[in-house]
Amino acid sequence: MARMTGREYVESLKELELEVYYMGRKITRVTDELMFMPHINTAAMTYELACDPEYAEIMTATSHLSGETINRFTHIHHSIDDLVKKIRMMRLLGQKTGTCFQRCVGLDALNALYTTTYDLDQERGTQYHRNFKKFLSHVQSKDLMSAGAMTDPRGDRSFRPSEQKSPYAYLKITNRNQDGIIVNGAKAHITGAINSHEIIVLPTRAMGEDDREFAVSFATPVNTRGIKYIFSRQTNDSRRLESPLDSGNPKYAIVGGEAVILFKDVFIPWERVFMAGEAEFCASLVETFAGNHRANYGGCKVGLADVVIGASHWIADAHGVAKASHIVDKLTDMIAMAETCWSCSLSCSYEGHQTPSGSYSINPMLANVTKLNITKLAYEWMRVAHDIAGGKIITLPSEKDLDMPELGDIIRECFSGRDGVDVDDIFKMLRLIENMSVGAGLPEAMHGAGSPAAQKIMIARRSGIDRKRVYAETIAGIRPDQLFESIVGMNEAEYWKKTRDRIKNQQ
Fold first, then answer.
1. Rg (CA), the chain
2. Which long-range contacts (CB under 8 A, 24 or more apart) does 135-138 make?
3. Of 365, 400, 352, nearest to 290 (Cα)?
4. Are 112 and 202 contained in the same domain?
5. Contact indicator for 220, 139 with CB cutoff of 8 Å
6. Are residues 105 and 205 in the same domain?
7. What is the span of the domain harbouring residue 134?
8. Do residues 372 and 239 share a domain?
9. What is the distance between the alpha carbons of residues 276 and 268, in angstroms, rounded to a whole number?
10. Which of 80, 200, 227, 322 could bond 316 through an S-S bridge, CB–CB 3.0 to 4.6 Å?
């Protein structure tokens, strides 16, 4: 069973001819475009680490289909240990790249579909689970990168999918025949789309009876006829084409290279269809995917926090203040916030459960708490990084000014730190902090895997508030407390009557 190295992954992309648009230009081979290369390098890290014996325990797994060793990004979780190692993998890759490594959406799509297609077949007698397992075997055997495509543009959100005026608001089935389905529409904000091998489409929300043609899930190669990609802009993205020093993270860039995917009369054969009109299963599929995906954020974002904390300490040290009490206090706050989120991810993994399909899934309540914490605490530890780094992270001169003979030495004198620290290294570290804490990473922490409102809905739904009321009523004596009555050997009314008599006799 093949496992690609990072370099082999990059080479595999050269074989694909796509229709990609960026800044008004059409690009057919993604490896020819310098703007795309940092995102490709980041995804390549998920392959490279899986081939390194030092990281094999975390980055690889044993396929339950073939028994072969595979990249964990193509694995279906079959134990609590799998769930925990997935989170450890996320943190490791965040530490190695300082950005979004793109493959977790596809991994979570694989696991959500494995569970949901099984349930669907059991209830409806369909063949979707068989279709999916065949596709999964293909992905595992060739070590393919899959981009999970869930989010639709959604148009006027006061309208349901079937009520929308724009044909691109939601992806839908527009025709069916004995060979397959035809789909039209769009998916938006799709991480790693242009440098994947496969696109896995899922519905973006619960669907009603009138929305059945929008209840669709399938997989298709990225170079399928009728698919176009529009690569999204990011904060300071063009800096990577100006100079490595100004980019901040020139090797791996900002977030995940998101793209809009347009589908125009795209044919999908039945063997690659995993849902086609079963609207009543959309809610469970979306919820399963979202829970799996939200669990990741205490891993990947904490890996990024590790990098920012290290950078903040480095820059304080370069300026001679690393041992100052206020710096130590701020760094400690950053660490505590990050480890809180890490604890959340671990807890929702350790509290996971087996599904009827035999696969394992996280605790959905704790997964939503994990992501909700990230939407707040990631902003807070980045705010502290700004405090430590100072205003220079957004006011430094460019590398082009440093290269000017009449200015370069003066600029270096202005921004030098303590003796022994290269001022160019100070520039690099400040730019890295800027890249990670000012750029597109924070909105991604907010809205990736759903906005805070989505997490709060799920937390409220699973809060067990009625059960909590029972706890309070039992302790307060509004409800009978059978355990207490067993301890004291009588009912509460009798116990309190005797207690009042004892108090009266003691006075």
1. 26
2. 135/219, 135/272, 135/274, 136/65, 136/74, 136/76, 136/110, 137/65, 137/66
3. 365
4. yes
5. no
6. yes
7. 6-281
8. no
9. 11
10. 322
Residue 60 phi/psi, 5-degree rounding, is -125, 165
My answer on whether 275 and 389 are in the same domain is no
Best CA proximity match to 9, nearest among 195, 253, 194:
195
| Alpha carbon distance 456, 47 (integer Å) | 35
In one-letter notation, the amino acid at residue 467 is R
Q: Could you tell me if 142 and 272 lie in one domain?
A: yes
In a domain, 298, yes or no: yes
Task: Give 89-141 as a DSSP string.
Answer: HHHHHHHHHSS--S-HHHHHHHHHHHHHHHHHHHHH--SHHHHHHHHHHHHHH
Give the residue from 281, 303, 326 where a domain finishes.
281
pLDDT tens, the chain, 507 aa long: 579 999 999 999 999 999 999 999 999 999 999 999 999 999 999 999 999 999 999 999 999 999 999 999 999 999 999 999 999 999 999 999 999 999 999 999 999 999 999 999 999 999 999 999 999 999 999 999 999 999 999 999 999 999 999 999 999 999 999 999 999 999 999 999 999 999 999 999 999 999 999 999 999 999 999 999 999 998 888 888 888 899 999 999 988 999 999 999 999 999 999 999 999 999 999 999 999 999 999 999 999 999 999 999 999 999 999 999 999 999 999 999 999 999 999 999 999 999 999 999 999 999 999 999 999 999 999 999 999 999 999 999 999 999 999 999 999 999 999 999 999 999 999 999 999 999 888 888 999 989 999 999 999 999 999 999 999 999 999 999 999 999 999 999 999 999 999 999 987
Residues 29 and 374: their CA atoms lie apart, in Å, by: 36
67 found inside a domain: yes
Catalytic residues: 100, 104, 191, 258, 293, 297, 300, 444
On whether residue 460 sits in a domain, the answer given is no
pTM beyond 0.90? yes
209 and 322 belong to one structural domain:
no
392 falls within a domain: yes
CATH number at residue 44: 2.40.110.10
Here the tokens at position 179 are 């060979």
Residues 73 and 126 in one domain: yes
User: Residue 50 gets which letter from DSSP?
Assistant: G
How many structural domains does the chain have?
Answer: 3
- Which helix H or strand E contains 70, and what residues bound it? strand 69-71
Q: Are residues 440 and 475 in the same domain?
A: no
In contact, 437 and 307? CB cutoff 8 Å: no
Strands 20-22 and 25-27 turn out to be antiparallel
Q: Which of 281, 306, 335 is the last residue of a domain?
A: 281
